[in-house]
Amino acid sequence: MLKVEHIGIAVQSLAESLPLFEKLLNTPCYKIEEVESEQVRTAFFATGVNKIELLESTSPEGVIARYLAKRGEGIHHIAFEVQDIESEMKRLAGEGFELLQEKPKRGADNKLVCFLHPKGTKNVLVELCQEVEVNK
């Protein structure tokens, strides 16, 4: 694990939450992106080396909608940047952690991602992130 990549916060509405976080963090949102496969719209803020990701569901059946119905708005996950996501997934599986995906998948903000089941991480949803290299 290289560093905390971002903290994900589940929100009911980006339209309502963006102005709040822009005031709180004293910086504008730098990217809004929809991840259709996850039924989520994300908004990112950067402050120094730290990032915050707001997550809004695009479907009543989406994972964020289910999270909000059960727990309400708040911290959803913590993401760690890794050098090689596939080797880190293999290492963590070997250590007994349950991976929620067998292979990394494309996530927001130009990342490959994989989540760990929170039952093995003291009820914290952990995301592994690896920057996708852009072909030059």
What is the strand and helix layout of this fold?
Elements: E1 3-10, H1 14-25, E2 31-35, E3 40-47, E4 50-57, H2 63-71, E5 74-81, H3 85-94, E6 105-107, E7 111-116, E8 126-131
Organism: Flavihumibacter solisilvae
Domain VOC: 3-131
Protein name: VOC domain-containing protein
Report on the architecture of this protein.
InterPro entries: Glyas_Bleomycin-R_OHBP_Dase (IPR029068), MeMalonyl-CoA_epimerase (IPR017515), MMCE/EMCE_epimerase (IPR051785), VOC_core (IPR037523). 23% of the residues lie in helices and 38% in strands. With 136 residues, it is α+β, with helices and mostly antiparallel strands. It has a single domain (3-131), classed as 2,3-Dihydroxybiphenyl 1,2-Dioxygenase, domain 1. It has an eight-stranded mixed sheet. Strand 6 and strand 7 (111-116) form a beta hairpin. The two termini are 26 Å apart. The mean pLDDT is 95.
